[in-house]
Amino acid sequence: MHTDLVAALDIGGTKIAGALVDGHGRIQARAQRATPAQEDGDTVMGAVEAVLAELTASPLWGRATAVGIGSAGPVDASAGTVSPVNVPGWRDYPLVRRVRAAAGDLPVELIGDGVAITAAEHWQGAARGHDNALCMVVSTGVGGGLVLNGRLHPGPTGNAGHIGHISVDLDGDPCPCGARGCVERIASGPNIARRALDAGWRPGPDGDASAAAVASSARLGDPVAVASFERAAQALAAGIAATATLVEIDIAVVGGGVGKAGDVLFAPLRKALTDYATLSFVQRLAVVPAQMGTDAGLVGAAAAALSRTPDATAAHV
Ligand SMILES: [Zn+2]
User: Fold this and answer.
1) Which of 80, 224, 233, 277 has the greatest number of beta carbons closer than 10 A?
2) pTM score, two decimals?
3) Smallest Cα–Cα separation from 239: which of 159, 134, 151, 154?
């Protein structure tokens, strides 16, 4: 099996993580900086370069053959640019060119963060062995990615699988993306919490009004908290069913902070799927929790970089 290393970058609105990852998906070295998300673009790039400088100083760096980047989106893989919603200093920012310059001209592969998570789950996690899968991250936002015919399907710009912005409520609430009734507008953590608060749910003495606190109340049987999760589950089910009906996936993997809610989310999600995934070829669709932990973005970025190398199939990417 291919055992050379690749460098991986996981770029989000909170942190920039980097690693050297081997052909088995094991992290051999790592570096991290906080994202100076509100600073100008070159200051943000300085944090990326600081992470890369730590990696290039590693004695293992000489074995690195490529760099994979999973970035908060939107990304444009065809242009090598990124415009993360939460990093206003980066608009059409030439990230690929800048990373290549900082990484000794190694080849650079850019994908969106949802696609990176999907690559990780397919390579090492819950979607392993599945040739047609949808993987989702349900947290502050709702992201995702697709595996089709056994291969990651990033699409021409690296954004395919953006299930959070499929509309499941034609006349629903406006979404920050500009559309209405998007899955994210109903199922994200902040929207689960907002809906519960609007319906009269109140946080406990610790004042925690997050979706995780709503999940705790739902576990104790609070009907308003239960109803907010049921509504989120309904939106996720409609989006998953639409995806399955369109491209015949056989598994949907749900991760992220909301995905950690357990049965509070998965029980109504599986029930709602029976309402929406109705045709014979989608009725056996499985919905399971994600298996990859906090390193999913790094492992997925590494998978994307490995997929560029000639013996990529050895890595089952
Ligand atoms: Zn939207």
Assistant:
1) 233
2) 0.91
3) 134
